[in-house]
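Incident log, entry 3
Record: NAD(P)-binding domain-containing protein (244 residues)
Problem: checksum mismatch between cached and fresh output.
Input:
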Amino acid sequence: MSKTIAFFGASAGCGLAALRLAVDAGHTCIALCRTPSKLEAEFPKNPANLIIKKGNAHSVADVSACLVKPTNPSELVDIVHFSIGGVLDLKTMTIPDPDVCKNGIKVLLNALKELRASGSATGRPAVFIISTTGISKFGRDVPIAFLPMYHYMLKMPHADKKVMEELVAASGERFTLVRPSFLTDGEQTNHKIRVGVEDVTRGWEKKAIGYTISRGDVGKWMYEQLYLKADENVYEGKAVTISY
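Fresh output:
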């Protein structure tokens, strides 16, 4: 069954991989992008089911415009994909906006709340969010060899994602947090993907500690296991670790 999916952070990486699969399958996809030409270049055939909107993921107005169905603006989209983030500067160990995920998720949650409260649109989309391993409050979920890198190099972006997760967990929205192991460049592969599941309030149900996974495979896993199964999502309210 065709879905309407809003994408925030789909101009590259995991988000772009998931967007490609959704567009190719015929779903209506709405992607917010600061520089539309960048995303348009990825889809030279200009598919009719892809709507690219120019805007900022930190603007409630811009985000709200992506959260309603084009064919029926009184209904919210079926699925929201959120994978915005910053690029780590290895020289300074910082990212340009240390609160990019926290502020972005605040805007998304406020936009959903305001659209419903105003009566502009109804519905409860499934919200799928890319987070990271290394931030669980229920114990280690990364290889011991990675601990120095996670605790030093990635300290700032991980602190941002941890706050993001806390805001999502307290929001009352239908959510799944996806925590990939260390991300590598690359397209989809035939690697077997191991899955760990954490209840965000009660702790681990199953651990899957691994080293890496490609961005292409993250997007593929999200599309196949979350988007296509959004109406019967066994991972709703959970944090899911995925790794080779």
